[in-house]
Design a protein that fits this description.
The protein is mainly alpha-helical and about 900 residues long. Among the domains are: about 265-420, no CATH class; about 425-570, no CATH class; about 600-680; about 705-845, no CATH class. Helices cover about 65% and strands about 5% of the residues. The chain has 29 helices and 13 strands. The strands form five sheets. A five-stranded mixed β-sheet has the order 1-2-5-6-13, with helices on both faces. Strands 3-4 form a two-stranded antiparallel sheet. β5 and β6 (about 120-125) form a beta hairpin. It starts with a helix and ends with a strand. The relative contact order is 0.06.
Length: about 900
């Protein structure tokens, strides 16, 4: 970096631009109508030239993207992922779909890391498929190599424009007469009005590599200069812009000097306005204004030094035109800063900012005659003076946020605020008094405090504000005091809302207690509420309004707890009442069951031998005793304890659960008598048939589980449990003859359990064998459904032990269905295995012919596809179809 650059940097303080003319990176140069340009590189790129080079593509209906970056992707995949995202931002690619790219689109994409093998990429849509761009690998690689080499020599403009034009020529896109040639000269072999035939025009160092786009152009077709003409226009525009910049900055220097002249801040025109607006009555505000004016003066002095440096330093005058424009724009930014509102001001708005008379006229402020004359002189001179500049090169990234004008505007704002407060203060105070009177009508009676005591602190503040207004004339302080009073009155409004909820909750509590409820913890909650209310009254009397918010929160919480205590107690009482009502109905039902059914059933079963009912001898008496005790003692006691005089609600709830359990036991006893009657009467009719069925089951099970030699002769003894089952059947018949039906049914059930144990043990073995067949690979899953069905139908031993009567018969029927399902599963699996093996055998028999044929076909296919595969691999091609079209990246 040159010594001049260090000198410029040393001139800047307070965050103002430091190296305005030396090291700025490439920056935006306007919006291109022909292409999406994304230049993320410190290399200079003449985007106007690149845009012009994209015009033929756009005119031919193509969407164009040009992307240059300094990024250095570690892998080709990382590079492609970056390009995908850039193409998506440009609207060419849809990342929500697989390879969805605009059909008529092309993207030239490069990184300045030119040592990477994938530094340059060209992506295009389906419209360019099967064109020379897609099929002529050598030509495309030549274009990419040319772009890479030019970027490597720091001439990205030449590389990108040449790349676009050479691709257009390769495809046959109609282009203008300008094409990229070699560096430093422009040759016109066909002649033109501006350049004679064969004349070489040498590019001078007029713009530091910007205006001639870093290269030279060969003119074809005669008549038009193409990009050269564009660059000439560009240079003319930049020169005009530079002249405008210099004039505007001179105006800004002059008018800022008018405002800030005088040496010390106290001698400047803005401070005199501040003083005559009674600003010095506010010490802190006075110091702020002095500081801002001092900073503005210091920044203005620096701006004068930079202005002289840019005009007189030979090194600055030799810089490229683009760099010089950028340097002057950075100086302009030292005035306007990067505060958006000032940066975007129009000429009229900037003149208003630099015209203090506007502030006075706005508020009709009276000042001394000498100051009026000074202001009128400034107003007459600044009228119609141009100050606004539209930036073309510089970006306000590291500029002081406010700038000189921003600091002046803040002082103007302070003066305007002082003058506004003169009329705003009495109006604000009057509005505050009116709201104070309105709030008095909203003061809740339940607070228990007169309005004069509740608002004493607010009244003191209003009186103090009146003194400040009338005696001290501190209008800003009056406005600020009124704002603070408004905040306090907002809290008082919250007090009204809180007490509205408090009153509603207290009304509900009172309604509950008036009925007769006495929640045991309600007294403590009410005492807490009264304590909070007393604290609230005390704070209001003292004017300590900042404590109101916390006390109101405590009041709301305590009131809600008191309400919850009362409502929960009431609900508990009502729940007990409903439960007692339901239990009374249940008690009456059981009494009816005992009298109308259970007593008659007991008398019936007593006509049979005692073995049928001995175990139930006390069941009816026990049930009746429970029902009688509940009627005579429990219900009256619980109603008494739950009633208002006692309200032992927790004890009643516990006793209700106990009574519910007792009534359930009474029902079990009564139902056992009815169930026994049903069993005996059913056994009289059906037991003989059921015993015969069980004997049939024994025979079926014996056949199922017995292993036979050659399928005919039994190979072993039957399971001994089947013999035990037959013995139980014999016992059941003997007892049935003696009318001991209860014991006979028990023997029947035991016999059937033994049969089920044996049957299911065999089923488990069969299921394991069938599962191995079904799971065989060649079975292809055949039989799986039937195997699963059989597994669900097979009952476990624990369920067999607990079952009685018809449940056992159902279990045996399910076991039979499970056996059938296993047989079906086995049959399906075996058939599938047989088919698979047969198909495999047929395939094996024809393998010789198939192998010979496939070798010939494979050899031919490899020969045809080898060149295509090589091309696809070398070009990193991506091909797939989607709704928009696919893309290829080379």
């Amino acid at each position: 970096m040159s010594s001049q650059s260090s000198y410029v940097r040393s001139l800047f303080l307070l965050g103002l631009p430091l190296a305005i003319a030396l090291d700025a990176p490439a920056s935006a140069q306007g919006i291109c109508p022909y292409a999406a340009l994304q230049i993320d590189s410190i290399q200079y790129v003449d985007q106007a030239a690149v845009c012009e080079a994209a015009k033929p593509w756009a005119d031919d209906g193509y969407k164009v993207l040009v992307f240059l970056t300094d990024a250095r992707p570690e892998t080709e995949d990382a590079w492609f992922n970056l390009l995908d995202s850039v193409e998506a931002e440009a609207g060419l690619r849809d990342l929500t779909q697989t390879d969805s790219f605009e059909r008529a689109a092309i993207a030239l994409e490069a990184t300045t890391a030119t040592d990477l093998p994938y530094a340059v990429s060209i992506t295009y849509g389906e419209t360019l498929y099967n064109t020379p761009l897609d099929t002529d690998d050598a030509a495309l690689e030549g274009i990419k190599r040319s772009v890479r080499e030019k970027i490597a020599t720091q001439d990205a403009t030449w590389g990108l424009t040449a790349g676009l034009q050479e691709m257009a020529a390769l495809v046959g896109v109609p282009t203008s007469s300008a094409e990229v040639g070699g560096p430093n000269s422009v040759t016109s072999p066909l002649g033109s009005s501006d350049i004679g035939q064969g004349t070489t025009v040498t590019a001078t160092n007029d713009s530091g590599g910007a205006i001639m786009a870093g290269g030279w152009l060969t003119l074809l077709g005669g008549g038009t200069v193409g990009i050269v003409a564009l660059q000439r226009r560009r240079r003319k525009q930049l020169n005009a812009h530079l002249e405008t910049l210099q004039n505007r900055i001179a105006n800004l220097l002059m008018w800022c000097e008018q405002l800030l002249t005088g040496g010390a801040p106290e001698n400047t025109l803005p401070y005199q306005l501040f003083s005559e607006s009674d600003g010095e009555r506010y010490p802190e505000l006075t110091q702020q204004v002095k500081t801002r004016l001092a900073e503005a003066r210091q920044a203005l002095d620096q701006a004068f030094q930079i202005h002289a440096h840019l005009q007189e330093d030979p090194h600055q005058l030799k810089l490229p035109l683009v760099k010089r424009v950028e340097a002057w724009e950075m100086l302009y930014l030292a005035f306007v800063g990067k505060y958006d509102r000032i940066l975007n001001m129009s000429d009229d708005e900037l003149r208003t900012l630099l015209n203090p008379a506007i502030v006075l006229n706005k508020h009709q402020t009276q000042v001394s005659q000498g100051l009026v004359s000074h202001l009128e002189a400034i107003q007459g001179k600044i009228k119609d003076t141009p100050l606004k500049v539209a930036l073309k090169q510089a970006k306000p990234k590291q500029i002081d946020h406010y700038g000189i004008l921003g600091r002046i505007e803040r002082v103007d704002h302070t003066i305007g605020h002082l003058q506004w407060a003169v009329t705003a203060a009495p109006e604000t105070l009057a509005a505050t008094r009116a709201r104070r009177q309105t709030l008095e009508t909203l003061l809740p009676n339940s607070l228990g405090l007169p309005a004069i005591e509740a608002f004493c602190g607010i009244d003191r503040c209003i009186a103090a504000a009146e003194t400040t207004l009338n005696r001290d004339r501190l209008y800003l302080k009056v406005v600020e005091d009124c704002r603070n009073i408004e905040q306090v009155m907002n809290w008082m409004a919250t007090l009204s809302e809180t007490f509205q909820r408090y009153d509603d909750q207290q009304a509900e509590i009172q309604a509950i207690t008036q009925v007769g409820y006495r929640p045991p913890q309600l007294h403590d909650h009410q005492a807490t509420l009264e304590h909070i209310l007393e604290q609230l009254r005390q704070q209001l009397r003292e004017g300590s309004y900042y404590a109101i918010s916390g006390l109101l929160s405590q009041l709301a919480e305590a009131s809600s707890q008191a309400q919850e205590t009362a409502t929960v107690w009431r609900d508990h009482h009502q729940h007990n009442q409903h439960a007692l009502k339901d239990l009374t109905a249940e008690h009456n039902r059981l009494v009816s069951l005992s009298q109308q059914k259970a007593t008659a059933a007991w008398q019936t079963i007593q006509q049979y031998p005692a073995s049928n009912w001995t175990d139930l001898a006390s069941a009816l008496d026990d049930a009746n005793q429970i029902l009688q005790q509940a009627h005579e003692k429990t219900f009256p006691y619980l109603h008494q304890q739950n009633d208002f005089p006692v309200q032992a609600l927790a004890e009643v709830s516990q006793e209700i659960e106990t009574l519910k359990s007792q009534l359930e036991n009474a029902e079990i006893l009564l139902q056992s008598i009815l169930t026994r009657q049903q069993l005996i009467q059913s056994a009289e009719v059906h037991l003989s048939r059921e015993l015969a069925e069980v004997e049939t089951y024994i025979q079926q099970t014996t056949q199922f589980v017995t292993v036979r030699f050659l399928g005919i002769f039994a190979a072993g003894q039957p399971d001994p449990r089947l013999q035990e089952a037959q013995a139980e059947i014999d016992i059941a018949r003997h007892r049935a003859q003696d009318q001991e039906y209860f014991r006979a049914c028990a023997a029947r059930d035991q016999a059937l359990r033994l049969v089920l144990f044996v049957y299911l043990a065999k089923l488990v073995q069969e299921a394991g064998r069938v599962r191995s067949l079904v799971m065989d690979f060649d079975a292809r899953g055949q039989g799986r459904t039937d195997l699963d069905q059989a597994t669900k139908l097979m009952t476990h031993d624990a369920a067999i032990r607990q079952a009685t009567g018809q449940a056992l018969f159902t279990q045996y029927a399910n076991a039979g269905q499970a056996r059938q399902a296993l047989q079906t599963a086995e049959r399906l699996a075996r058939k599938a295995i047989h088919r698979t093996k047969a198909a495999r055998k047929r395939s094996s028999s024809s393998s010789s012919y198939s192998t010979s044929s496939s070798r010939s076909s494979s050899s031919s296919h490899r020969s045809r596809s080898s060149s295509s595969s090589r091309r696809s691999a070398s070009s990193s091609s991506r091909r797939s179809s989607s709704s928009r079209g696919s893309s290829r990246r080379r």
